[in-house]
Specification:
- The structure holds two protein chains of two kinds.
- Chain A is mostly beta strands.
- Chain A contains no helices and eleven strands.
- In chain A, strands 2, 4, 5, 6, 9, 10 and 11 form a seven-stranded mixed beta sheet that branches. Chain A has a four-stranded antiparallel beta sheet with strand order 1-3-8-7, with no helix packed on it.
- By secondary structure, chain B is an all-beta fold.
- Chain B is globular, with a radius of gyration of 13 Å.
- Helices cover about 0% and strands about 55% of the residues of chain B.
- Chains A and B meet through strand 5 and strand 9 of A and strand 4, strand 5, strand 9 and strand 10 of B.
């Protein structure tokens, strides 16, 4: 069965520090992978998606970047965090009518 | 382009009362539609989905939703609310079902009054 792992679950980082959130998928190959951010009162915003190794599409310009170094690995990064980067980050694998989400990372930038 | 509108950021109902969460969508092609539930600091759990089969879709925890093409709606209902239903609910739409991912509404926070 397909599972999706995301870590860490919570993270408190100072402004200006780097960020790396990791997402891995099991039970499938060549998945379409997505990073969403959930900010208070704003629902889920698509940040990046990837249809294959090294292929990244960005939905909104911002202080974040994403990479797909391996088929089942998707990484969200930042070189210098801003206060506005605080939020709940979700990794997802979506295929046609199926969508699987990680448990999310609560990021607080202080 | 696809979009989703959820009417009401907060909905409050009494325990045992009908739950109705509204969702309207916009899509240029026949859509796939989803309802997800999110408990605090957790990921999203699929409640139900519409994939062009039966227009009345039954999901987990007693929830159901009806796809109405003429109204471009996919409202979520449950006959009798339970305290454990208190959570955030998201409606989502997908046109291609593939690379474009899901477009979510802003969510509705369901409050259950004892």
């Amino acid at each position: 069965s397909q599972t999706i792992h995301q870590w860490p679950a919570t993270l408190v980082q100072p402004v200006g520090s780097p960020l790396s959130l990791e997402c891995t998928v099991e039970g499938t190959s060549n998945p379409n992978l997505y990073w969403y951010r959930q900010a208070a009162g704003r629902g889920l915003q698509l940040l990046f998606y990837s249809v294959g190794i090294g292929q990244i599409s960005s939905e909104v310009p911002q202080n974040l970047s994403a990479s797909r170094p391996q088929d089942r690995q998707f990484i969200l990064s930042s070189k210098k965090l801003l206060l506005s980067d605080s939020g709940f980050y979700l990794c997802a694998w979506i295929r046609y009518t199926e969508a699987f989400f990680g448990q999310g990372t609560r990021l607080t930038v202080v | 382009a696809q979009s989703v509108t959820q009417l009401g950021s907060h909905v409050s109902v009494s325990e045992g009362a009908l739950v109705l969460l509204r969702c309207n969508y916009s899509s240029s092609v026949p859509p796939y539609l989803f309802w997800y539930v999110q408990y605090p600091n957790q990921g999203l759990q699929l409640l139900l989905k519409y994939t062009s089969a039966a227009t009345l879709v039954k999901g987990i925890n007693g929830f159901e939703a009806e796809f109405k093409k003429s109204e471009t709606s996919f409202h979520l209902t449950k006959p009798s609310a339970h305290m454990s239903d208190a959570a955030e609910y998201f409606c989502a739409v997908s046109e291609s079902g593939g690379a474009d991912g899901l477009t979510f509404g802003k969510g509705t926070h369901l409050i259950i009054q004892p």
